[in-house]
Amino acid sequence: MNMNKVERFDTSSIPLETLETIRSRLNQVHLSLRKLFDQLNHHNRHPTKVRYPSYQSLQSQFQILLTQLHTLTSNLDSNDEQLKSTNVYPLPTFPAAQQENLLTTLLRKKPLPEIDEWIDNAILKCKQLNESTQQSSASLRQVDEFAQWCSAKVEELQEEFHFYGFQTAQELEHSTTEEGEKEKVKKAALESKRTEEERAITDGDKKPLTPNQILKFMFQDVRP
Amino acid sequence: MVQQLSLVASFPHSKYVQTMSTLRALTGIEKPQDISTYTLLTKPYSEFKPKVEPGKVNQIEQYFMKCITTWDDSTSDNLDISVPIIKSGNDESNLWVDTLFGDLNGNTRRNWTLQISDIPTAGKNQTVSAQTVYESTLVHYHTTNTKKGSLANGEPKKDEPVDTEMKDADADADLKEVREVKVENQDESSINTNATTDSFLSFLHDLGYEVKNQYWIKGVRYFHGDIFIETFKVFVRDDDFQSKDNQIKLKLLDSTNTFQVKVYINVPKATDVELINQGSKDLQKFQDFIKNLISLEIPDRMYMDSRVLKS
Predict the structure, then answer these.
(1) Contact A219/B306, CB-based, under 8 Å?
(2) Where does it localize (chain B) (predicted)?
């Protein structure tokens, strides 16, 4: 009898495919949230035994959640019209009297009041954030413009100069004068004196002994 | 006994100031410890040749022994290693050190550290050199004769013959190297022939060791955690000069004024694997840290083998 009733019911108008994809997405989100919740709860219950999940693992889990939520919203969005025009009602065979609680939950279309509050809060915060960034973006643009102007100016100035070697034109000019020549000689003398000293210290640029040779002398009396 | 983990390096004299200030900054030690030691390198004079028989312990070794004491005369005090030692024609450098037993005005006590070291451990993928070192420090009183004690104390020259006894004992030893004994005092030895003597050299002789060489080490020591960082120069006797006034002339072993660096950690037990691993890691870290200044390397174990080769 009951069976007949169900058979009479036309199921072709139910958007099965759409609902099925949404269901599987929801299931994924549910699993992810469950896992995260369990991890946090586990730590709260045994703070000494179980470690808090690491920053990296939390981060990656949030990342996964975000992607899942994103696909879910896009799914909902693409099936917008069909879902809006769909009405849900229990079949006559549903034990409405026994499962009243479940039924009201399933049939509810509007969010709970506290969820409404969350949503309002989030929207408000988004607005504030947008306003503040708008203000700073104006100044940011100014800064960018200034930086561009600076680099352009530097390039412009650079074109007016030519760079060769490491001496200024004044230094080069000075080196060609008599005094400059003398200085050159003096510098060369200083340089040669320095190398001379270095030679004396290293006993005429002899090759230094390796640590191993020294060790051989210290351990085995073998003169290097 | 300690297990010594070490790395070595060398750097030219021109990098001395830079290296010292880096080490000072790194270790936070403003005034490093001075190293100033005198070492006698000794070797058993008669070879021990056991008959090789199957079923018996055949690896019986003879080792070189280092006898180390402090080098604490005025030359050592005045020697500044930051000043390069340059050989010049008319040698004016005052690298004349007191002979060990030359001037004994009341200072007859010396602490000698006798050191025998095994060949460093072999193995692939070694990060540091690991060597077992055995040390024993003893206090030695250099007494001369008892009969003429008062006389001898007054005149240092009288102490010389003490060492000539050793010379008599092993006549053809390398006495060119060890000039504690001076030729001109030989005629005086007759005075002391029946004196009771206790010279360190004759002690070594009684032990079966002969002095092969001697060297002086001067340098500084820094500490960084458990790591000893030693920077030093090695001096040997300059054979071009005759000894005079109880003093002998020194020269650098490495005439290029190059500094030697040795960084090491002493682990009390060779079996303490954990500490040894930790020490090697520390040394490696230090090696990596300082690699742009001095490149520390693992010394070749063959060069640190102090066993006497059997001919």
Answers:
(1) yes
(2) Nucleus
A220·B64 Cβ contact <8 A = yes
- Could you report the predicted ipTM of this complex, rounded to two decimals? 0.76
Find which of A195, A212, A223 to mutate to test the B interface (most B CBs within 10 Å of its CB): A212
| Beta strand segments in chain A, E | none
pLDDT at B171 > cutoff 70: no
Residue B2 CA to residue B275 CA, distance in Å, equals: 12
Spell out which residues of chain B touch residue A208, defining contact as CB-CB under 8 Å.
Answer: 10, 12, 254, 256, 258
The percent of chain B in helix, strand and coil, each rounded to the nearest 5, is 25, 30, 40
Beta strands in B17-174 (DSSP E): 33-44, 65-70, 96-98, 109-117, 129-141
Q: Which two tokens stand for residue B82?
A: 């930051």
Q: Which residues contact B300 (CB under 8 A, 6 or more apart)?
A: A212, A215
Distance from CA of B125 to the nearest CA of A (A): 19
User: Quick one: chain A helix, strand, coil %, rounded to 5?
Assistant: 75, 0, 25
Rounded to two decimals, what is the model's pTM? 0.57
Dihedral angle over CA of A9, A13, A17, A21, nearest 10: -90
How many Å apart are CA B4 and CA B116, to the nearest integer?
Answer: 12
Beta-carbon separation of A206 and B41 below 8 A: no
- Nearest-Cα residue of chain B relative to residue A203: B256
Tell the residue number behind the tokens 């279309």, with chain if given. Answer: A109
B213-244 pLDDT, tens digit each: 999 999 999 999 889 999 999 998 888 777 77
CATH T-level assignment (fold) for domain B2-51+58-86+93-304: Hypothetical Protein Pfu-838710-001 (2.40.320)
**Hey, is the C-beta of A211 within 8 angstroms of any chain B C-beta?**
yes
Would the CA dihedral through A115, A116, A121, A126 be positive or negative? Answer: positive
Residue B231: which residues within 8 A CB-CB, separation 6 or more?
Answer: B19, B20, B23, B219, B220, B221, B222, B259, B260, B261
Q: Which of A214, A216, A217 to mutate to test the interface with B (most CBs of B within 10 A)?
A: A214
- Residue B200 binned pLDDT confidence (cut-offs 50, 70, 90): confident
Helices and strands, number each (H, E), in chain A: 9, 0
* Chain B residue numbers touching A220 (CB-CB < 8 A): 64, 303, 305-306
Length of chain B: 311
Place of tokens 């069976």: A3
Strands (E), chain B: 2-11, 33-44, 65-70, 96-98, 109-117, 129-141, 209-224, 227-237, 247-252, 259-267
Length of chain A in terms of residues written? 224
pLDDT, residue B107, reads 59
Range of A43-47, A164-168, A170-174, B203-207 with top mean pLDDT: B203-207
Tell me, what DSSP letter sits at residue B292?
T
